[in-house]
Each structure stands twice: as C-alpha cells, then as structure tokens.
Amino acid sequence: MIDVFRLTKIKLIELINRPLILVMMIVLPILLGSIAGVSNVRNTGKDIFLAIVDEDQTDASARVIEDLRAKEWHIDLTDDDSAQRRLLLNDVDGVLTIRKGFEANLDQIEVSYLYYVEAEGSMVTTMVREVIVASVLPLFSERSMVDKLTVLYENNGQTPPPDLAERLRDRIEKLRNEQAKIEIEYLGDLVIAPTLTFVVSDYSMEVFFLSIYAILGSLALNRAAQRKRLGASAYGLPKDYVATILSLIIIGSAQIALYSVFMLVLMNQSINIINLLILFVFLILILGIGQLLSLIEESLRLYLSLMLLLFSAVIGGCFFQLSSGLLMKYGQYSPHGWVLSTLRGTRVTPIWVVLMFSLTILILGYFAHKHRIAKETDNS
Amino acid sequence: MLRRLLIYYLRESINIKTALFLLLVILLAVFSKSLVSFDDEGKARLYEPLDISFVDNDDSIISDVIETQFADLQAIGKVHMDTMDRAQERLADNEILLILEMPENFYEQTTSGESRDRVRIWLNEQMPAESNLFARLLNHAVDSFTSVQASLYAYQEELSLIVDDEEVFDNYSRNATWEVAARMISRNELLNVEKEARMRQFWFVVASLSSLFAMLPALLVLMLAQNEIKSGQHRRLMAANVSWWKVHLSKVLIGMLWLITGLIPVFIALSFTLPQLRWYHLFIAIIPLYLSVSFLSLALAFQSNNSEATMLTCWMMILTFLLMAGGIYPTQLLPSWIQAIQKFSPAYYSFSQIYETLYERSVPSLLYIYSVIIVIISFIISGLSWKRSKV
Fold first, then answer.
1. Which fold, A46-122?
2. If residue B353 lies in a helix (H) or strand (E), which one and from where to where?
C-alpha cells in the first residue's frame, strides 16, 4: 500500500510538472467556469438593456415605460439618434419607439404605435413583447371599459364620476398584484431554471475539457518501457496501474471542483454534491476508455482520441444542446451525452451501471496492458 | 519544386489519419442532417415543436383563450384536449412536453372574485432543456393573463355599482371578457418588430460547426510537419535550401484538398436545408480560417519535439478560437472581455460570414479584409517559426 502511495505521489509530481496538464488542471477550469457562470447568468434573461424613444410623451406612454422599469431592466429614455447609435454599438438589446398617437388611439386594434428594433443576435424579443403586452393590455381595457361604463351611467340618467378612469386604473394596478395573480404549480422533480436559449448548457464545457484531460493524462502516464521494468518486480505492474489511475482521479477531481465552484459562485447557486458525483463517474469512465486508447500506436493514439472525443461531444450535446428526442435516440449512448443528460435530470442509464461499466473497463485495461507487456517481453 | 512537394505531401497524407478525419466529417454531416426539422413554411429549424396536453376541468372562455395562446406559440406543436388519464399516458410515453390542468370552476372563481385554485403543470422530466425554455415563455405569458384578469375584475367592481340585475351584469361581463380576450389573442400585433436580427439557433449551430470543420484539417497539416521532422526530411529540406514558403504552402494546399473533400458531404447535407447558403459562400468563409489555423499549426510544429504536447496545444488553440468567436457560447452571452478580444480569432470572421449569409444580409467587406490580413500574419508567423526552428 505504501508503494502505491509513493508511486501516486511521484505520478502527481510528474503530472504537475507538465505545463499542459497544469493549464488543464488550474487555468482552464477557472477560466471556463467563469465564462460558463457569466453565460448562464446572462441566459436567464435578467439583465436586459432597452433604449426607449418616447415620441408620444403622454401618461399612457409613461406607464408603459414605468412597467418596463419595474422589471428591473436597464431602461434608457433617449432620442432616436442616440438609440440607433447604441443599437449599432450593440449596447442595448433593442430600441422601443412609442410613436405619437399611442395614447389617443389606444382603442384601435388594427393600428399599433409601438415599434421595436432588435439588436444583432438578440434573444429577448419574445420576453420584451410579453412585458409590453402585459403593460398595454390594461391600458386598452381601461379605455374601452371607461367608455362602456360612461355609456351605462348616461343610459341610467347618471353622470359618470369624474375620477372614473383614475379609479379603474388604481384598482387594476392593485388587482394585478393580488387577486388577479395566476398561481402556477409545477409538479415533478425537475428544477425549473428559465432560460433564453437552448444552445447553452452549464456543464458542457467542463465535460468536454474533463474528457480531454482524462485522455491526455492516461496517455501521458502510460510509458511502455517503465511498465516493462515494473512488470519484472512483484506486483509492480498493478501498483503502477492503480497509482496512475489514482493520480489522474485526484487531479481530475480538483478540476471538477474548481470549475464547479467558479461557475456556481458567479451564478449565485450552491454546490450540488450529486452533480459532482456524476462528473466523477464520468471521469472514471473516460479514464477507463483512456487506458484502452493508450494501447494504440503512439503516433496515432492522441489524434484518434481527440477525434473520438469530438464526435462523442458533438453527438452528446457539448457544443449545442440536443433536443430530448435526439438525446434519447442517439446522444445518451455517447459518454458526453450520458453525463449531460444525467446532470439535466433525464432518466438515462443509471449512474451505478455506468460506474460498474467504467470499473470493468479499467480492469480490462489493466489486463490488456499486462498482456501487451508480457508479449513485448517475450518478443525481446 | 512546388509540384514535387505537392505530390510528395499528397502521398504522405494518404493515411489512416486523413481517413479518420473524413469519416468524422461524414458521420457528423449525417448526424447534423438528423438534427433538422422543417416548419410549415418549409424553413429548417433545429428543434421540433412539442405537443402539450390540456386538461380543461373549467371549460370556460379563459380556457379557450389559454388554448389559443398555446397553439400560437412557435415552440408548441399540437394542443391535445385530453382527460387527465390520457394526458398522463402521453406524458409517460414522451409524446408531450407537459400537461396543463385548469382547475374546476376557475372562471366562476375569477368572476366572483374568490381565491382561485392553482393552475397545475406536469412537466416531462425527460425533456428538461425544453421545459426550462418553455417555463420562461409561460412565466411571461402569465403576466399578460394577469393583466387581463385585473382589468376585468376592476370593470366588474365598477359595473356592480351601476347594474343591479344579475343577468344584465353577466352579459356585460361576458362581452367585456370577449373583447379583452380578442385583444389578448391578437397581442403579437401590439408590437411591430421593424427589423429582425434575433439569434437563430439553427444558423448559429451551422456557422459554428462549419468553422470547427474548417479548422480540423490543420491537425493533419501539423502531423505532416511532425512526420517530416521525425524522419529527418525537414533537415534535408533545410540543407537543400528549399524555400520555407514552398514547403509550408504545399502542406497547406494538400490539407485544403482534404478539407474540400470533407466539405462536399457537409455541403450536400446543408444544401437541402439552407438553400441560401451557396457553395462559394461557404468556401469563401472557411478557406481563410483553414489557412490561418494551418499556418499557426505549422508555426507550433517547429517549436517543440514533443509531438503529443504540440498536437494538444494546437487542439486547444482551435477550441479557443471557436470559443472567442462566439461559436460555443453565443457572443451576446460571453463575458465582455472576450467580446473585446474576439476579433483576434480567425474563426470570428468565418463564423460571422456564414451567419450573415444565412440571414441573407450583405456581408460587410471588412470581414473579408480582416480574414485575409489574419492569413497573411499567420503565414509570416509560420515563416519566422521555420527560421527559428527548435527541432
């Protein structure tokens, strides 16, 4: 046992002395974790920047602007030139222009006085539209209802109260936050995190780079000559093999932890132990595959491994999320697809089955290496 | 000399590694084809709309409006009007994204001002990504519903001060509800979107994958150089005073041949789904990217004897370029510091050109000019690396 620890220590030092592994262990997880954190926060659509050109300058237009401000979006009330300039600079997500006549024609269904120009690559138009609709609909209703009530008062021979419109408006405002509020209850185990786009997923980059690290580490620590020498000593080979896997697991786990901490801190979320466990099982799976790939001829193995990883990553949804149909049909059978599906909470191959499979590959890898060394020794 | 070098590198490049590259491209092209579905107008899209089940225990005007609104959403296919048992069956069979259950007497509770039961939604746990996207749409649609309801409540309160007769009151209420519902149904017309520029997910993925494909043959070029160094051919070429640019250019041209060979199945797959993307658009966009990355890979090859470390560095360079270009996370979601430096990535120009072409907008000429400048800079770097070779 002491030998295994010593060997593991030597291998850890050896790995840390490789600049590329060091980059993959420390720099990449911090960098990618931060990028993923920022991107995921932006993907929730909480930070929206709008430029508004109010040509109408009425109570109604002021109320629309107030409603948009109430969403805690960044609203810049400006003139058309400045708004267009900011749009060109991609400083804002869009420009909303409230044309003259908006208030005067609130009861006209066929003509709209609200114009919107999207910024390049904008993902928030649907959301902006819904908020504007939620703001304008009561204005429309208020106007039409005041008209109806006025007619009714007059038909009854009464004078409509002078503050009717104001009273109705105050009441609508109050009711929006109380009685009229629709409560939705989501049922099931899914954690709902509303997003703007499908393309981004939180752990995809970590999964991809973790797999590259695991393969690279497996190849880097697999030296045939050294293993041949160790094969001559008692238990030399199994000890070396276990030490290799242990050292790769230690560094891989550090990578997972660093990435998760940096991403989740930026997203203001707590660390989910289950997710770390899933990533850990994925690490073991790729280490197992890496041990098999390291048996391939030296000039080909890294290139082949990278191509396989790329294929698995694309069909698994690392570069863009797959629809659930595709994920269930193809994606889940790639290592990357399995881990991303499991992290998202989709029911795919159970984690313990994958863990057993990974351990089996690792054991198979050991016997394959042993067989190869025995063959090479016989040949020499 | 250039001709002889070309023939030599062509022979050298016919190996299992090139075959692997071509196989990967073909497999990904086939896979990409299965990603696409078409909408009613025949336009390609990345994600198929999903059906939902609507269990209407209320059967009122509110449920009518909700059903119409759902059917109107692009992300939603059919709205099945089901019983709860049938809906649960569909959910278990992954036929639907969710079940929406309207509680009994929802309309009555609404009109009488009583506290209402909750609208319940069963989400499909096998579709978490779609559920999250849909949840955002729903949360904002609820704001509109709430506004409409608030208006109706306020109207009814005022109405009750004028109208005593229950039947007349109900008639006026119903009329007002229909009017607001009609406005709600046509709510998309409330806002005119003057100029469309929003991110199109399918085009984003096409631009990103095409840029990635374009950079992969640079690894083949790198391996040609590495084999040359290992076999001693590099020293012999230097001793024979062969111009570095001829050696580099011939390797890069051979890589380009394989890139074009690989692109043929990709282009065929794309031509069915994206007729606006012509072969010359694609080639003009990706060839400069390929050239830049290949020359930079050659520069790396002459700086280290450790072939695996060099290949990995090259691989990381490719992914960094793609990330900086906004090909992994869309630009608008990237941190500001990456947005500030993304123009240094050759992939940015290729990605942007393809994306603009897909949008059928004119590609700014600066995108072409900068991509050529980056090719020239990369070429010079590869020459400097040859002259200060450490191998």
1. abc type-2 transporter like fold (3.40.1710)
2. helix B346-358
